[in-house]
Amino acid sequence: MKYIKITLKPGKEESFKRFHPWVFSGAIDRFERQPEEGDVVEIIDWKGNFVGTGHYQIGSIAVRILSFMKENIDLEFYKKRLNVAYRMRRSIGLINGDYNNTYRLVHGEGDNLSGLIIDIYDKTAVVQAHSPGMHYARHTLAQALKEVMGDALQSIYYKSETTLPYKAELDPENEYLFGENAGNIATEYGLKFHVDWLRGQKTGFFVDQRENRSLLEKYSKDRSVLNMFCYTGGFSFYAMRGGAKLVHSVDSSAKAIDLTCENVELNFPGDNRHQAFAEDAFKYLDTMGDQYDLIILDPPAFAKHKKVLNNALQGYRKLNAKAFEKIKPGGILFTFSCSQVVSKENFRLAVFSAAAQSGRSVRILHQLTQPADHPVNIYHPEGEYLKGLVLYVE
Description:
By secondary structure, this protein is an alpha/beta fold. The protein has helices at 14-17, 75-91, 132-136, 138-149, 210-219, 234-241, 254-267, 281-287, 309-326, 344-358; strands at residues 4-8, 22-24, 28-31, 40-44, 50-56, 61-67, 102-107, 116-121, 124-129, 155-158, 175-178, 185-188, 191-194, 224-228, 246-251, 274-278, 294-297, 331-337, 362-369, 387-393.
């Protein structure tokens, strides 16, 4: 298949010798002819040598490279990539029958499919496009998914209304590409939860905190736990299974609180250790007492662009300072940032500043990141977005 060629400026091919998958608009010298958004294009260097093939889009990231080899981007290509991703998840033991049927199958650049996210909830795949090219390929992707996963898949839901570049004017609709609602209860490490992929955030659940929730369970016995920004209550029901004596879940969204309560009831029916509050996080932290000796701070991304990085770091400092001020002596703080533009160093400095402000003695027990089904392409370090610390506070 012949694709439109895009020629790079002299010297701009160097990053692609290191297999970085993004072509920035400033690196482009000329177009063979103007491509449409979402077109598959071929990148060549200024001497005419092949560099890679990928999806074109308008913006600072002009091309998301899918392959550094000459190959057609078609059904067979997607089947091959999905097969590799599926095999990797099976090989690390993530797909484990009724004990764990929740995982990320495709993590963008981490699985060499830039612009694509696929999360699996039992027999449903939720597909999310972050580029026009993946949006236009959605039906081919659905066919490839069906062929790769077979009977393990009963429905494919496409959810990209809020993730595609608004400049592309694609007007996407969330819809089932295959099957219909196959039931929205999934299992993660033996705990059940409702997944709202129709109206919920992201794909319906934050799969990336699975291992960190499991770690929290080990620290929960006989502790009083506060789960801030609880969303659907994942940390809360892990804490309860770990033997917490009380668990309080807080989120500003009443819908999230309802879902948290449903999930707790699903796993611990009639258990009065749990209470949930629909309230602003900072307001709750200001007015709460000092009854908690395990606090989880897992806020939404404070910064999605570098322009607001300083404001975000101030937000992390303020949030963690409140936790340090109120947590009981001998308490444990799980604190996170999911902002890609906030580096590990920046986040750690913000938390360090908050600790110093509190005057408490604080030790790092664990430094956390995203799990194995959210792999980071070694040639694309930008894919490492989740960072966390587990702290012991005297």
